[in-house]
Amino acid sequence: MDSTRGAAPAGTADATALNILSDEALMQRVGGGDEPAYRILVARHLSRHLGFATRLLGDRAEGEEVMQEAFLKLWRGAANWQPRGARFTTWFYRVVLNLCIDRQRKRRGRQVPIEDAGDPVDQRQPADAGIHDRQMSRQIDGALAELPQRQREAVSLCYLQGLTNREAADVLQVNIKALESLLTRGRAALKQRLGHLRSELTGGTP
Predict the structure, then answer these.
(1) CA distances, 156 to each of 78, 86, 98, 186 (Å)
(2) Cα separation of 112 and 65, whole Å?
(3) 122, 157, 165, 166 from 178: Cα distances, Å
(4) Domain boundaries, the chain
(5) Within a 10 A sphere around the Cβ of 89, how many other Cβ atoms?
(6) How far apart are the C-alpha atoms of 117 and 59, rounded to whole Å?
(7) pLDDT tens for each residue of 108-140
(8) CA 183: distance to chain centroid?
(9) Per residue in 178-191, is it b (16+ CB within 10 Å) or e — as a string?
(10) Within 10 Å of residue 141's Cβ, how many Cβ atoms?
C-alpha cells in the first residue's frame, strides 16, 4: 500500500515534518497524491521562479500564467517523475524555461512594454526612493530584454537566480564552456548598456 496515499490529513506536526524533507522527497510524495507536500513545493519555489519567468518574458502577468502552468505540470507529472541524478530545481527551472520559450515563440513579433514588468513598490520605502529603484530596475530589465535569448537565460540563471555555472548549464542543456561563453558575451553587452549606472550600483564608486 502506498503510505503517502493512506496518510491522514497533515496537521501542524505533519507540516513541520514535511518541511524538513528535500524537494526530491517531496516530489515523490506528490507523485502519491500528497497535497500538503505539493503546497510546500509551491511555497518554496513560486516566488523565485516567478521572478525568473517575469524577467525572461518582460511581463509579470505572463510570468504568473507560466507559473500556474508549471505547477500544473508538476502536479500531473509527479507520478512519473524520475530524478535521474538531477536535482528537482534543475528539472523545474527547465520546465519554466520551456514554457517561457513556447510563449515567446507564440508572440514573436509583438513587443511587450518593459513597464509591465517588475514587482510592486515596497511601501515601507520613501516614495522617491521607490521611484528611483523602479527606474533603475526597469533600465536593468530593459538591458536584459535586449540580450539574445540564450544570453538572457544564462545571465538570469547565474546572476539573478543564483545558480552555479554547472546548474545553469544543466538547465540550458549545454556544456560548461558554452555556458561561460554565453555569460561572457552577456556581461559585455550589459556593461555597455548599463555603464551609466555603474556609480549608482556601486554606491558612487567610479
Answers:
(1) 26, 20, 15, 10
(2) 15
(3) 38, 14, 10, 11
(4) 14-116, 126-206
(5) 19
(6) 4
(7) 655 444 333 333 334 344 444 444 455 666 777
(8) 17
(9) ebbebbebbeebbe
(10) 17
Q: Which CATH architecture has domain 126-206?
A: Orthogonal Bundle (1.10)
What is the distance between the alpha carbons of residues 27 and 24, in angstroms, rounded to a whole number?
5
Q: Is the Cα torsion angle 53, 57, 63, 68 positive or negative in sign?
A: negative
Instruction: Specify the 3-state DSSP secondary structure of 86.
Output: coil
User: Is 66 exposed, middle or buried, given 0-12, 13-18 or 19+ CB atoms closer than 10 A?
Assistant: buried
Q: What is the 3-state secondary structure (H, E, C) of 120-163?
A: CCCCCCCHHHHHHHHHHHHHHHHHHHCCCHHHHHHHHHHHHCCC
More confident of the two residues 8 and 164: 164
Which residue, among 149, 185, 194, has the nearest Cα to 57 in the 3D structure? 149
Residue 183 has pLDDT above 60, yes or no: yes
Burial 28-53 (b: 16+ CB within 10 A, else e): bbbbeebebbbebbeeebeeebbbbb
CATH of 14-116, one of 1.10.150.130, 3.40.50.720, 3.40.50.1000, 1.10.1740.10: 1.10.1740.10
Read off the pLDDT band of 196 (50, 70, 90). Answer: low
